[in-house]
Amino acid sequence: YRNHYDNSPVRLADRKFDVARPAFRLGHIAARNPDYRGRPFVDVEPDLRKGWDSSTSKVYGEWDTVRGYVNDAYDRKMSMVERERRREDASNAADEDTRRLNANADLNLY
């Protein structure tokens, strides 16, 4: 996320990555939440915004300032989670196909 932040054209020049890190972390962690599985950022944003309370805003910036970082991290991690899920589903399907083939082969022996 640091490289993405450092090269972002919308990055505020006076803010170092360490100030934006909690926003990226929030999006990253939210994407791994099973309750948010397959849901777009706009659907989960109200929950995430509630967690970005006034004390957090004072240190790391108002929600409207950091929203883009949270959204970016959420979308990037959600893409990775979904790819992992599809890979796992494909592997499970292949295992099931192998099990069926083996079961049919055993039936043909008798």
Strand content: under 5%
In DSSP terms, counting alpha (H) and pi (I) runs of 4 or more, how many helices? 5
Which percent range fits the helix content?
Answer: over 70%
Class from secondary-structure proportions: mainly alpha
Distance between the termini: 59 Å
Main beta sheet, described? none
Q: Using only CA atoms, what is the Rg?
A: 21 Å
By DSSP, the count of extended strands is 0
Characterize the structure shown.
This protein has five helices and no strands. By secondary structure, it is mostly helical. Helix 2 (17-31) packs parallel to helix 5 (63-108). The model has no long low-confidence stretch (mean pLDDT 83).
Features:
5 helices, mainly alpha, elongated, 0% strand, 110 residues
Task: Describe the structure concisely for a colleague.
The protein is an all-alpha fold and 110 residues long.
Give a topology summary:
Layout (H helix, E strand, L loop, with lengths): L1 H5 L10 H15 L9 H11 L2 H7 L2 H46 L2
